[in-house]
Automatic annotation (TrEMBL):
UniProt keyword terms in alphabetical order: FAD, Flavoprotein, Oxidoreductase
Lineage, top ranks: Bacteria, Bacillati, Actinomycetota, Actinomycetes, Propionibacteriales
InterPro entries referenced in this protein's UniProt entry, alphabetically: Acyl-CoA_DH_CS, Acyl-CoA_Oxase/DH_mid-dom, Acyl-CoA_Oxase/DH_mid-dom_sf, AcylCo_DH-like_C, AcylCo_DH/oxidase_C, AcylCoA_DH/ox_N, AcylCoA_DH/ox_N_sf, AcylCoA_DH/oxidase_NM_dom_sf
Known cofactor(s): FAD
Protein family (similarity comment): Belongs to the acyl-CoA dehydrogenase family.
Annotated SUPFAM superfamilies: Acyl-CoA dehydrogenase C-terminal domain-like (SSF47203), Acyl-CoA dehydrogenase NM domain-like (SSF56645)
Species whose genome carries this gene: Kribbella kalugense
Superkingdom as given in the UniProt entry: Bacteria
rRNA processing as UniProt keyword: no
Ranges for domain Acyl-CoA dehydrogenase/oxidase C-terminal: 230-378
Domain Acyl-CoA oxidase/dehydrogenase middle per the UniProt entry, residue ranges: 124-218
Record domain Acyl-CoA dehydrogenase/oxidase N-terminal: where: 9-120
GO molecular function annotations of the record: acyl-CoA dehydrogenase activity; flavin adenine dinucleotide binding
Protein name: Alkylation response protein AidB-like acyl-CoA dehydrogenase
Length: 382
């Protein structure tokens, strides 16, 4: 069932029609098979890139669509509802481009950004390490200045698009200062010394490849430093605020898809001479699912509108990520319950939605970390 969206402009309404057409014809028909075979949908990202969907929030002068986050996130939700791995991939790519688009020099933006947001290239966000997840200050990948270059050594973990990305926004230590010794770099995917681990064998999002990324004397131009040396933590945390909104929108897209499957099934499945949708127990379950989806959508839109107005939104982004991903886990689990035994089979997508929902509570900051962000902000403002 199509979501009745409130969009701010005629242009965004036209964009919604384009996205829905692509979802219907290019995404949804291929999602189940690609997830089953664990096939990375690189050609799908090219198709979406040509349609302008890999640079939605970025300036037109660099090849983006210059859409407000309020619009970008609703388009992302539509895509995630059709194919979660692709929705998450667009969110990752958008976050990967954020550092250079926001903190880069004019020269860097002119040189690099058009290819990054114009649709041909796909990015990866290389922050986490085997022993450094939410604790960014403990990362050990190091970048050493050598003339007009930096030489990078270390290993990144849990990197979406690993081995498939065309560029990696990489965070590495340039000094031993825990908070101010981290810097950000634009690393091309073809550079010598870059290698990848075997794809992780995951519960869900199996169409989205996740690997280790190894840097073995990777040499890049000093001109690929994003911001100043030591700005890396500030850039990473700022990008994560926006990235968490992307994950929130994807989670609600997944929950909406699960609600649609459950509602359709409940109207068709007959028991005791009537559709199971006629039983109050099922009706109340569907109502609670709908309330969770609508509530989550409201939280991410509220945060997006604050972002579009230039207001602070760190707390609101954390709330949206927490509420939306918890909603996705609950709604997808309840969808399996509505379908009963069929929900536990691969004949219907409900079990896949449930498996895909779990990771949304984990990546880009676990929901325990979101609670930490929220509480710190609350106590800081008292």
């Amino acid at each position: 069932m199509a979501v009745d969206r409130l969009l701010p402009t005629d242009e965004s309404i036209d964009l919604l029609a384009l996205v829905r057409d692509l979802c219907e014809h290019e995404l949804a028909p291929h999602a189940a098979q690609a997830e089953e075979s664990e096939t990375f949908p690189r050609d799908t990202f090219r198709t979406l890139g040509k349609a302008g969907l890999l640079g939605l929030p970025y300036p037109e002068q660099y090849g983006g669509a210059e859409q407000p986050y309020e619009v970008y996130l609703q388009m992302l939700e539509e895509i995630a509802a059709a194919w979660m791995s692709v929705g998450v991939g667009i969110s990752v790519h958008t976050m990967t481009s954020y550092g250079l688009a926001t903190f880069g020099t004019d020269e860097q933006k002119d040189r690099l950004l058009p290819d990054m947001v114009g649709g041909e290239l796909l990015g990866a966000y290389a922050l986490s390490e085997p022993q450094a997840g939410s604790d960014i200050s403990s990362l050990t990948t190091r970048a050493v200045r050598d003339g007009d270059s930096y030489v990078l050594n270390g290993t990144k973990a849990w990197i979406s698009h690993g081995s498939h990305a065309d560029f990696y926004t990489t965070f590495a230590r340039t000094s031993d200062d825990p908070k101010h010794g981290i810097s950000a770099f634009h690393v091309p995917g073809t550079v010598e010394g870059l290698s990848f681990g075997a794809p992780e064998r995951k519960m869900g999002l199996t169409g989205s490849t996740t690997t280790l990324v190894n840097y073995d004397n990777v040499r890049i131009p000093a001109a690929n430093l994003i911001g100043a040396e030591g700005d890396g933590m500030r850039i990473a945390l700022s990008a994560l605020d926006s990235g968490r909104l992307g994950i929130a929108a994807c989670a609600i897209g997944l929950a909406q898809a699960a609600l649609d499957v459950a509602t359709s099934y409940a109207k068709e499945r007959q028991q005791f001479g009537q559709a199971i949708a006629d039983f109050q127990g099922i009706r109340f379950l569907l109502a609670d699912m709908a309330a969770a989806v609508e509530s989550g959508r409201a939280t991410y839109l509220h945060a997006a509108r604050r972002r579009d107005l230039g207001r602070t939104f760190t707390r609101e982004a954390a709330i949206a990520k927490l509420v939306c991903t918890d909603a996705a886990m609950k709604v997808t689990t309840d969808a399996v319950q509505v379908l009963g035994g069929y929900g536990y089979t691969r004949e219907f997508p409900a079990e896949r939605y449930m498996r895909e929902a779990k990771v949304t509570q984990i990546f880009e900051g676990t929901n325990q970390i979101q609670r930490l962000v929220i509480s710190r902000d609350l106590l800081r403002s008292v």
